[in-house]
Amino acid sequence: MPVTIIGTRLNNRPNFLTVGWVTRANINPPMIAIAINKANASADGILMHKAFSVNFPGTDLIEETDYCGLVSGKEKDKSRIFDIFYGELKNAPMIKSCPITLECQLTETIDLPTNYLFIGEIKGAYGDENCFTEGKPDVTEINPLLLTMPDNSYWQVGEFLGRACKIGRSLKA
Amino acid sequence: MPVTIIGTRLNNRPNFLTVGWVTRANINPPMIAIAINKANASADGILMHKAFSVNFPGTDLIEETDYCGLVSGKEKDKSRIFDIFYGELKNAPMIKSCPITLECQLTETIDLPTNYLFIGEIKGAYGDENCFTEGKPDVTEINPLLLTMPDNSYWQVGEFLGRACKIGRSLKA
After folding, report:
1. Tell me, what's the ipTM?
2. Mean pLDDT of chain B
3. Which of residues 9-68 of B touch A (CB under 8 A)?
Protein backbone atom coordinates (compact mmCIF):
# COMPACT_ATOMS: atom_id res chain seq x y z
CA MET A 1 0.00 0.00 0.00
CA PRO A 2 1.07 3.60 -0.50
CA VAL A 3 1.98 5.64 2.58
CA THR A 4 0.30 8.99 3.10
CA ILE A 5 0.10 11.51 5.89
CA ILE A 6 -3.42 12.85 6.40
CA GLY A 7 -3.59 16.48 7.52
CA THR A 8 -6.53 17.78 9.55
CA ARG A 9 -7.30 20.52 12.03
CA LEU A 10 -7.95 19.50 15.61
CA ASN A 11 -8.29 21.67 18.71
CA ASN A 12 -7.48 24.66 16.56
CA ARG A 13 -4.13 23.36 15.34
CA PRO A 14 -2.89 21.14 12.50
CA ASN A 15 -2.72 17.40 13.15
CA PHE A 16 -1.16 14.61 11.09
CA LEU A 17 -1.86 10.88 10.89
CA THR A 18 -0.06 8.26 8.80
CA VAL A 19 -2.53 6.29 6.67
CA GLY A 20 -1.93 3.47 4.19
CA TRP A 21 -5.59 2.74 3.46
CA VAL A 22 -6.01 5.16 0.58
CA THR A 23 -7.34 4.86 -2.96
CA ARG A 24 -8.62 6.99 -5.79
CA ALA A 25 -12.42 6.63 -5.84
CA ASN A 26 -13.89 8.63 -8.74
CA ILE A 27 -12.49 9.89 -12.04
CA ASN A 28 -14.59 13.01 -12.58
CA PRO A 29 -14.67 14.98 -10.37
CA PRO A 30 -11.43 13.57 -8.93
CA MET A 31 -12.10 11.90 -5.58
CA ILE A 32 -10.02 9.95 -3.11
CA ALA A 33 -11.09 7.61 -0.29
CA ILE A 34 -9.25 7.06 2.99
CA ALA A 35 -10.10 4.62 5.79
CA ILE A 36 -9.36 5.68 9.37
CA ASN A 37 -9.95 3.88 12.65
CA LYS A 38 -12.84 5.57 14.46
CA ALA A 39 -10.71 5.91 17.60
CA ASN A 40 -8.21 8.20 15.84
CA ALA A 41 -8.30 11.91 16.64
CA SER A 42 -8.04 12.67 12.91
CA ALA A 43 -11.48 11.13 12.37
CA ASP A 44 -12.95 13.75 14.72
CA GLY A 45 -11.12 16.49 12.84
CA ILE A 46 -12.48 15.38 9.46
CA LEU A 47 -16.04 14.96 10.76
CA MET A 48 -15.92 18.43 12.32
CA HIS A 49 -14.32 20.41 9.47
CA LYS A 50 -15.30 18.33 6.38
CA ALA A 51 -11.81 18.67 4.96
CA PHE A 52 -8.46 16.88 4.97
CA SER A 53 -5.19 16.80 3.07
CA VAL A 54 -3.37 13.79 1.62
CA ASN A 55 0.43 14.20 1.68
CA PHE A 56 2.82 11.75 0.00
CA PRO A 57 6.14 11.72 1.87
CA GLY A 58 9.39 10.78 0.21
CA THR A 59 11.72 8.22 1.75
CA ASP A 60 13.68 11.05 3.43
CA LEU A 61 10.67 11.58 5.74
CA ILE A 62 10.48 7.95 6.90
CA GLU A 63 11.05 8.75 10.60
CA GLU A 64 8.56 11.63 10.73
CA THR A 65 6.03 9.53 8.80
CA ASP A 66 6.35 6.59 11.16
CA TYR A 67 6.13 8.91 14.16
CA CYS A 68 2.78 10.30 12.94
CA GLY A 69 1.40 6.76 12.98
CA LEU A 70 2.81 5.91 16.41
CA VAL A 71 1.59 8.85 18.46
CA SER A 72 -2.01 10.04 18.89
CA GLY A 73 -3.01 13.65 18.34
CA LYS A 74 -5.06 13.23 21.52
CA GLU A 75 -1.84 12.91 23.53
CA LYS A 76 0.83 14.80 21.60
CA ASP A 77 0.85 18.03 19.65
CA LYS A 78 1.96 16.99 16.14
CA SER A 79 1.49 20.48 14.69
CA ARG A 80 5.18 21.44 14.82
CA ILE A 81 6.73 18.42 13.09
CA PHE A 82 6.37 19.90 9.61
CA ASP A 83 6.36 23.30 7.95
CA ILE A 84 2.87 23.63 6.54
CA PHE A 85 0.92 25.57 3.95
CA TYR A 86 -2.71 25.96 2.95
CA GLY A 87 -4.45 26.05 -0.41
CA GLU A 88 -8.14 26.73 -0.92
CA LEU A 89 -9.39 24.88 2.17
CA LYS A 90 -8.74 26.36 5.60
CA ASN A 91 -8.91 23.04 7.44
CA ALA A 92 -6.64 20.96 5.22
CA PRO A 93 -3.06 21.76 6.31
CA MET A 94 -0.47 20.48 3.83
CA ILE A 95 3.16 19.53 4.41
CA LYS A 96 5.77 21.62 2.56
CA SER A 97 8.42 18.88 2.57
CA CYS A 98 6.13 16.32 0.86
CA PRO A 99 6.69 16.18 -2.92
CA ILE A 100 2.96 15.68 -3.69
CA THR A 101 0.03 16.98 -1.64
CA LEU A 102 -3.74 17.07 -2.20
CA GLU A 103 -6.40 19.14 -0.44
CA CYS A 104 -9.79 17.44 -0.20
CA GLN A 105 -13.33 18.46 0.66
CA LEU A 106 -15.26 15.70 2.42
CA THR A 107 -18.18 14.59 0.26
CA GLU A 108 -19.28 11.36 1.93
CA THR A 109 -18.62 9.42 5.15
CA ILE A 110 -19.19 5.67 5.14
CA ASP A 111 -19.74 4.44 8.69
CA LEU A 112 -18.21 0.94 8.81
CA PRO A 113 -17.99 -1.17 12.00
CA THR A 114 -14.52 -0.09 13.18
CA ASN A 115 -13.50 2.50 10.58
CA TYR A 116 -14.78 5.51 8.76
CA LEU A 117 -14.26 5.51 5.02
CA PHE A 118 -14.02 9.18 4.10
CA ILE A 119 -14.54 10.17 0.46
CA GLY A 120 -13.14 13.54 -0.50
CA GLU A 121 -13.16 15.59 -3.68
CA ILE A 122 -9.65 16.71 -4.61
CA LYS A 123 -9.90 20.51 -4.72
CA GLY A 124 -6.23 21.24 -5.21
CA ALA A 125 -3.04 19.31 -6.01
CA TYR A 126 0.48 20.61 -5.37
CA GLY A 127 3.82 19.19 -6.38
CA ASP A 128 7.53 19.89 -6.15
CA GLU A 129 8.50 20.90 -9.69
CA ASN A 130 11.61 18.70 -9.48
CA CYS A 131 9.31 15.66 -9.20
CA PHE A 132 7.72 16.08 -12.63
CA THR A 133 8.93 14.75 -15.98
CA GLU A 134 7.19 15.93 -19.14
CA GLY A 135 4.45 17.42 -16.99
CA LYS A 136 3.62 14.21 -15.15
CA PRO A 137 4.51 13.18 -11.58
CA ASP A 138 7.66 11.03 -11.77
CA VAL A 139 7.71 8.29 -9.15
CA THR A 140 11.49 7.95 -9.39
CA GLU A 141 11.82 11.59 -8.27
CA ILE A 142 8.97 11.51 -5.71
CA ASN A 143 10.53 8.37 -4.20
CA PRO A 144 7.43 7.53 -2.12
CA LEU A 145 7.17 5.08 0.77
CA LEU A 146 5.37 1.76 0.45
CA LEU A 147 4.05 -0.24 3.41
CA THR A 148 3.30 -3.92 3.92
CA MET A 149 1.30 -5.37 6.81
CA PRO A 150 1.26 -7.42 9.02
CA ASP A 151 5.06 -7.58 8.74
CA ASN A 152 5.22 -3.79 9.35
CA SER A 153 7.77 -2.95 6.69
CA TYR A 154 8.52 0.13 4.61
CA TRP A 155 9.80 -0.32 1.04
CA GLN A 156 11.04 1.77 -1.83
CA VAL A 157 9.61 1.62 -5.36
CA GLY A 158 11.88 -0.59 -7.45
CA GLU A 159 12.55 -1.24 -11.13
CA PHE A 160 10.39 -0.11 -14.03
CA LEU A 161 8.74 -3.17 -15.59
CA GLY A 162 6.73 -1.95 -18.57
CA ARG A 163 4.05 0.34 -19.95
CA ALA A 164 0.47 -0.10 -18.79
CA CYS A 165 -2.19 -0.30 -21.54
CA LYS A 166 0.56 -1.48 -23.88
CA ILE A 167 2.48 -4.53 -22.66
CA GLY A 168 -0.68 -6.68 -22.75
CA ARG A 169 -1.47 -5.88 -26.40
CA SER A 170 0.46 -8.93 -27.56
CA LEU A 171 -2.28 -11.11 -26.04
CA LYS A 172 -5.03 -9.22 -27.86
CA ALA A 173 -4.64 -11.10 -31.11
CA MET B 1 -0.98 2.00 -6.35
CA PRO B 2 -1.14 -1.78 -6.04
CA VAL B 3 -2.31 -3.76 -9.06
CA THR B 4 -5.12 -6.26 -8.61
CA ILE B 5 -7.30 -8.33 -10.90
CA ILE B 6 -10.95 -8.30 -9.87
CA GLY B 7 -12.82 -11.54 -10.54
CA THR B 8 -16.57 -11.56 -11.13
CA ARG B 9 -19.17 -13.67 -12.90
CA LEU B 10 -20.78 -12.22 -15.98
CA ASN B 11 -23.05 -13.89 -18.53
CA ASN B 12 -22.58 -17.14 -16.63
CA ARG B 13 -18.79 -17.17 -16.97
CA PRO B 14 -15.84 -15.75 -15.03
CA ASN B 15 -14.64 -12.28 -15.97
CA PHE B 16 -11.51 -10.38 -14.92
CA LEU B 17 -10.72 -6.66 -14.75
CA THR B 18 -7.44 -5.01 -13.75
CA VAL B 19 -7.99 -2.47 -10.96
CA GLY B 20 -5.51 -0.24 -9.14
CA TRP B 21 -8.06 1.69 -7.09
CA VAL B 22 -8.12 -0.65 -4.10
CA THR B 23 -7.74 -0.16 -0.35
CA ARG B 24 -8.44 -1.92 2.91
CA ALA B 25 -11.52 -0.24 4.42
CA ASN B 26 -12.30 -1.81 7.81
CA ILE B 27 -10.26 -3.72 10.37
CA ASN B 28 -12.91 -5.94 11.94
CA PRO B 29 -14.56 -7.58 10.10
CA PRO B 30 -11.89 -7.30 7.39
CA MET B 31 -13.20 -5.25 4.47
CA ILE B 32 -11.75 -3.98 1.24
CA ALA B 33 -12.95 -1.21 -1.10
CA ILE B 34 -12.50 -1.09 -4.88
CA ALA B 35 -13.48 1.69 -7.29
CA ILE B 36 -14.65 0.70 -10.77
CA ASN B 37 -15.80 2.85 -13.67
CA LYS B 38 -19.57 2.43 -14.04
CA ALA B 39 -19.14 1.59 -17.73
CA ASN B 40 -17.13 -1.55 -16.94
CA ALA B 41 -18.83 -4.92 -17.37
CA SER B 42 -17.38 -6.01 -14.00
CA ALA B 43 -19.54 -3.40 -12.25
CA ASP B 44 -22.64 -5.16 -13.61
CA GLY B 45 -21.30 -8.51 -12.41
CA ILE B 46 -20.72 -7.23 -8.87
CA LEU B 47 -24.11 -5.50 -8.67
CA MET B 48 -25.84 -8.66 -9.88
CA HIS B 49 -24.06 -11.28 -7.76
CA LYS B 50 -22.94 -9.23 -4.72
CA ALA B 51 -19.54 -10.88 -4.79
CA PHE B 52 -16.07 -10.39 -6.24
CA SER B 53 -12.51 -11.61 -5.82
CA VAL B 54 -9.33 -9.56 -5.44
CA ASN B 55 -6.29 -11.27 -6.98
CA PHE B 56 -2.72 -9.96 -6.57
CA PRO B 57 -0.66 -10.95 -9.61
CA GLY B 58 3.11 -11.36 -9.46
CA THR B 59 5.37 -9.66 -11.99
CA ASP B 60 5.36 -12.87 -14.09
CA LEU B 61 1.70 -12.12 -14.96
CA ILE B 62 2.35 -8.58 -16.22
CA GLU B 63 1.08 -9.25 -19.77
CA GLU B 64 -2.09 -11.05 -18.68
CA THR B 65 -2.73 -8.35 -16.07
CA ASP B 66 -2.37 -5.54 -18.58
CA TYR B 67 -4.56 -7.40 -21.06
CA CYS B 68 -7.39 -7.61 -18.50
CA GLY B 69 -7.33 -3.82 -18.25
CA LEU B 70 -7.21 -3.28 -22.01
CA VAL B 71 -10.09 -5.43 -23.18
CA SER B 72 -13.74 -5.24 -22.05
CA GLY B 73 -15.64 -8.30 -20.89
CA LYS B 74 -18.48 -6.95 -23.00
CA GLU B 75 -16.45 -7.63 -26.15
CA LYS B 76 -14.07 -10.45 -25.29
CA ASP B 77 -14.43 -13.63 -23.28
CA LYS B 78 -11.72 -13.33 -20.60
CA SER B 79 -12.78 -16.52 -18.82
CA ARG B 80 -10.03 -18.69 -20.31
CA ILE B 81 -6.97 -16.57 -19.60
CA PHE B 82 -6.42 -18.08 -16.16
CA ASP B 83 -6.95 -21.37 -14.38
CA ILE B 84 -9.47 -20.55 -11.67
CA PHE B 85 -10.76 -21.89 -8.38
CA TYR B 86 -13.58 -21.04 -6.01
CA GLY B 87 -13.75 -20.77 -2.22
CA GLU B 88 -16.92 -20.14 -0.24
CA LEU B 89 -18.56 -17.75 -2.71
CA LYS B 90 -19.90 -19.09 -6.00
CA ASN B 91 -19.60 -15.80 -7.85
CA ALA B 92 -16.05 -14.84 -6.90
CA PRO B 93 -13.74 -16.75 -9.25
CA MET B 94 -10.10 -16.65 -8.11
CA ILE B 95 -6.92 -17.00 -10.15
CA LYS B 96 -4.71 -20.00 -9.35
CA SER B 97 -1.51 -18.38 -10.60
CA CYS B 98 -1.86 -15.31 -8.34
CA PRO B 99 0.14 -15.67 -5.11
CA ILE B 100 -2.52 -13.94 -2.96
CA THR B 101 -6.28 -13.99 -3.57
CA LEU B 102 -9.29 -12.76 -1.55
CA GLU B 103 -12.96 -13.64 -1.94
CA CYS B 104 -15.33 -10.84 -0.94
CA GLN B 105 -19.03 -10.47 -0.25
CA LEU B 106 -20.40 -7.09 -1.30
CA THR B 107 -21.62 -5.19 1.75
CA GLU B 108 -22.08 -1.66 0.40
CA THR B 109 -22.12 0.17 -2.94
CA ILE B 110 -21.28 3.87 -2.98
CA ASP B 111 -22.73 5.47 -6.10
CA LEU B 112 -20.25 8.21 -7.10
CA PRO B 113 -20.58 10.35 -10.26
CA THR B 114 -18.50 8.21 -12.64
CA ASN B 115 -17.50 5.23 -10.48
CA TYR B 116 -18.95 2.72 -8.06
CA LEU B 117 -17.00 2.27 -4.84
CA PHE B 118 -17.73 -1.32 -3.83
CA ILE B 119 -17.06 -2.32 -0.22
CA GLY B 120 -16.68 -6.04 0.37
CA GLU B 121 -16.16 -8.18 3.44
CA ILE B 122 -13.20 -10.54 2.96
CA LYS B 123 -14.71 -14.00 3.46
CA GLY B 124 -11.66 -16.02 2.51
CA ALA B 125 -7.97 -15.40 1.82
CA TYR B 126 -5.69 -17.79 -0.06
CA GLY B 127 -1.96 -17.73 -0.58
CA ASP B 128 0.84 -19.68 -2.21
CA GLU B 129 2.72 -21.21 0.73
CA ASN B 130 6.03 -20.25 -0.87
CA CYS B 131 5.05 -16.58 -0.45
CA PHE B 132 4.93 -16.67 3.35
CA THR B 133 7.75 -16.11 5.83
CA GLU B 134 7.12 -16.84 9.51
CA GLY B 135 3.40 -17.10 8.75
CA LYS B 136 3.12 -13.68 7.13
CA PRO B 137 2.81 -12.77 3.45
CA ASP B 138 6.30 -11.88 2.20
CA VAL B 139 6.27 -9.14 -0.42
CA THR B 140 9.70 -10.18 -1.73
CA GLU B 141 8.24 -13.59 -2.62
CA ILE B 142 4.84 -12.32 -3.82
CA ASN B 143 6.65 -9.83 -6.06
CA PRO B 144 3.50 -7.79 -6.80
CA LEU B 145 3.00 -5.21 -9.51
CA LEU B 146 2.77 -1.49 -8.76
CA LEU B 147 1.18 1.06 -11.09
CA THR B 148 1.63 4.80 -11.54
CA MET B 149 -0.70 7.08 -13.49
CA PRO B 150 -0.90 9.16 -15.67
CA ASP B 151 2.50 7.95 -16.92
CA ASN B 152 1.06 4.41 -17.26
CA SER B 153 3.98 2.52 -15.77
CA TYR B 154 4.36 -0.77 -13.93
CA TRP B 155 7.02 -1.07 -11.21
CA GLN B 156 8.47 -3.68 -8.93
CA VAL B 157 8.72 -3.29 -5.14
CA GLY B 158 12.26 -2.20 -4.30
CA GLU B 159 14.51 -2.11 -1.26
CA PHE B 160 13.44 -2.62 2.35
CA LEU B 161 13.73 0.70 4.19
CA GLY B 162 12.79 0.03 7.81
CA ARG B 163 10.26 -1.25 10.30
CA ALA B 164 6.92 0.51 10.64
CA CYS B 165 5.83 1.43 14.19
CA LYS B 166 9.51 1.38 15.15
CA ILE B 167 11.73 3.63 13.05
CA GLY B 168 9.83 6.72 14.24
CA ARG B 169 10.35 6.01 17.94
CA SER B 170 13.52 8.07 18.01
CA LEU B 171 11.35 11.20 17.55
CA LYS B 172 9.09 10.26 20.46
CA ALA B 173 11.42 11.57 23.13
Report:
1. 0.96
2. 96
3. 20-29, 31, 33-35, 37, 59, 62-68
